[in-house]
Amino acid sequence: MSKIRFFRRFVINLSLSVAELAVNEEIYKMADFEERRAEKRLRYHWPIWFAEDTGGQLSQGQMVDISSDGAAFSCYAEHCPCPGQWITARFSVPQYGQDNSFDLSNHVRSGSICRVDEVSPFLRRVAVKFADSLPFKPGEQDESQAGSEEELEVLSV
Predict the structure, then answer these.
(1) From CA 50, how far away is CA 80, in angstroms rounded?
(2) Terminus-to-terminus CA distance in the chain, angstroms?
(3) Selected residue with higher pLDDT from 131 and 53
(4) CATH classification of 2-156 is 2.40.10.220, yes or no?
(5) Rg, C-alpha atoms of the chain
(6) Are 119 and 20 in contact (CB under 8 A)?
(7) Fewer Cβ in 10 A, N or C end of the chain?
(8) Among 31-35, 91-95, 126-130, which is the least confidently predicted range?
(9) Three-state secondary structure call for residue 153
């Protein structure tokens, strides 16, 4: 019974992720502003798991973008953390190689929720600042090593 529930939940998450991807693209297209961030962010749409503490119940979200100091992800409103809340997150980040390939590096980071935006009545976008930075800058990897964005899009669906 739990396998069926998990499978149904996965299908719901997958269909929501596709809809959310369209919403995210629209928001990025509409944003007409000068970039003020000190570090370029890597935009990608892969799962992120988070909880209030390492022993807490995990909730699933979908990564929107990431830098070495923080990340933005989306999640269901019913499982959304609050601004100021401390969470621990588990996620993977692509690291590009010399031969147009990439490996996934797995990370666990704790951090504080900086902002929560309402995307829809059921969906929230969450910004988290990591307590400890990643050992590399995901958005500033050498473009010649990055391969094509199409590869990432195919893998994210």
Answers:
(1) 10
(2) 26
(3) 131
(4) yes
(5) 16
(6) yes
(7) N
(8) 31-35
(9) helix
Cβ atoms of 105 and 91 closer than 8 Å: no
Give how far the C-alpha of residue 92 lies from the chain's centroid of Cα atoms, to the nearest Å: 9
Amino acid at 153: E
Looking at residue 102, its pLDDT comes to 81
Who's near 43: CB < 8 A, 6+ residues apart? Answer: 28, 64, 65
Please give the backbone phi and psi of residue 147, each rounded to the nearest 5 degrees, phi first: 70, -160
DSSP class of 59 = E
Which residues, at least 6 apart from 108, have a Cβ–Cβ distance to it below 8 Å? 88, 89, 90
Q: Which residue has the higher pLDDT, 146 or 35?
A: 35
pTM of the model: 0.68
pLDDT tier at 50, thresholds 50, 70, 90:
very high
Task: Look up residue 119 and give its two tokens.
Answer: 């995307």
Element (H, E) at 118: strand 102-120
Q: What is the structure's pLDDT at 143?
A: 52
Q: Write down the domain spans for the chain.
A: 2-156
